[in-house]
Amino acid sequence: MGTSTGAAGAAELRRRLGVRDAVLIGLGSMLGAGIFAALAPAAAAAGSGLLPAMAVAAVVAYCNATSSARLAARYPQSGGTYVYGRERLGDFWGYLAGWGFVVGKTASCAAMALTVGSYVWPGQAHAVAVAAVVALTAVNYLGVQKSAWLTRGIVAAVLAVLAAVVVACLGSGTAGAARLAIGADTTAGGVLQAAGLLFFAFAGYARIATLGEEVRDPRRTIPRAIPLALGIALVAYAAVAVAVLAVLGPDRLAGAAAPLSEAVRAAGVPGLAPVVRAGAAVAALGSLLALLLGVSRTTLAMARDRHLPHVLAAVHPRYRVPHRAELVIGAVVAVLAATMDVRGAIGFSSFGVLAYYAVANASAWTLGPDEGRPARIVPAVGAAGCLALAFALPLTSVLWGAAVMALGAAVYGLRKAVSRRHRPL
Predict the structure, then answer these.
(1) In this structure, are residues 49 and 191 in contact, taking their beta carbons and an 8 Å threshold?
(2) Are 59 and 66 in contact (CB under 8 A)?
(3) Which end of the chain is less crowded, N or C, counting CB atoms within 10 A of the terminal residue's CB?
(4) Are 348 and 401 in contact (CB under 8 A)?
């Protein structure tokens, strides 16, 4: 297959992360604002089919995680599927995956920052969002180990809040098993659309793969860390979804602006609502921290291959982080957080990330038996599931997502045409 050219001779990042740190970074991404924000729009799409939709999203996420883990063990470099697509399928597919990831996740960063702002100080959500981006960019600049330390505290706090929500809801007299039954309001299209929206909350394990160049013993660490992080997140999400549905039911959940806060109030524990709000803000901070890490590393990998300005490929001589990429991504996210609306960001981000994982599964399909290839059904189901969920998203998300991916392909084609024209004979 193809060989990497851009990374040759480039300064490498420092390998500091073990299994526990890698799992925590993945959890910090997944246990973000997705579970606090994605349940309501997913319930609006699927109705009483919310739990089957979560199961569909989990199956696709499992296939993606398995394919990504096998590829990351073989190619332990920063960049994730950008690297895998380039090595296994060719330069264009790697570029397209990287483009989808950077664009989609940059918008997702802004959405997470705005979520922090809306929970901390609703009247000044944009200002708080920008401050959060600046602060976390500074943390990332000082080194990935410091980011891992901060993520530990965030993950512990969020898991504690989610556990409190589950106990409060399932232990109340208002919870009813009948609300979990699938009714006539459920359609296959609605379940797929809800699964696509819920996928937003599962996609964080990619951060483990994109940090491959900073993981110790990556061939052993990454295949262990990715399924562990995904499994813990799935158990937490399923428990929260069952608890909230049992108290609110699908109709009330679909109309809830803050579903977990409303659920604890309905369960008769209104004093827990401020704690849930604080937990949502902390969760969004954790997700934003991990997202900034992942986007900057993919930017580094693309800059090494000159698909993005090569100046962004610099690694700080002391902190051993891609400092220019981090500063540029931080600046772009800060501008978006100051100007954009959080609505619609989940669908747009999901489209780009599902395209990214479709390339990951196609790349895993090409692995040989001696290269750690998963069972063929895994990348097949993963790729088909990614495409199905992407095009089942709300029409606006599909149109914008497809347009942005087409723009990326056009930029690639134009760059190649210019390169050929100036190539010496």
Answers:
(1) yes
(2) no
(3) C
(4) yes
DSSP string, 204-239: GGHHHHHBGGGBSSHHHHHHHHHHHHHHHHHHHHHH
* Count of positions (residues) in the chain: 425
User: What is d(CA 299, CA 292) in angstroms, rounded to the nearest whole number?
Assistant: 10
Query: Please, what sign has the CA dihedral across residues 153, 156, 158, 161?
Result: negative
339 neighbors 28 (Cβ within 8 angstroms): no
Q: Which two tokens mark 124?
A: 């000044």
SS3 label, residue 121: coil
- Tell me: the pLDDT tens digits for 313-345? 998 888 778 889 999 999 999 998 898 876 677
The H-assigned helical ranges of 255-344 are 259-266, 273-304, 323-339
SS3 195: helix
Residue type, 209: A
3-state secondary structure of 17: strand
| Distance (Å, whole) CA 135 – CA 375 | 43
Q: Shortest CA distance to 306 belongs to which of 20, 4, 73, 75? A: 4
Give the chain's residues under pLDDT 70. Answer: 1-16, 32-33, 78, 143-148, 150-151, 173, 175-179, 181, 183-185, 205-207, 209-215, 342-343, 422-425
Q: Which candidate, 33, 57, 47, 55, places its Cα nearest to that of 255?
A: 47
The span from the CA of 168 to the CA of 185, in Å, is 28
Query: What's the CA gap between 170 and 167, in Å, rounded?
Result: 5
Task: State both tokens at 218.
Answer: 């990556």
pTM recorded for the entire structure: 0.79
Phi, psi of 61 (to 5 degrees): -65, -40
Q: Give one DSSP letter per residue of 326-376, joined into a string.
A: HHHHHHHHHHHHHH--STTHHHHHHHHHHHHHHHHHHHHHT--GGGTPPPT
Which H helix or E strand runs over 51? Answer: helix 50-74
Cβ–Cβ < 8 Å for 105, 349: yes
| Pairwise CA distance, residues 61 & 80, whole Å | 15
Give the HSE-up count for residue 243: Cα atoms under 13 Å, Cβ half-sphere.
27
Q: Please, what sign has the CA dihedral across residues 245, 246, 251, 252?
A: negative
Residues facing 215 on adjacent strands = 17
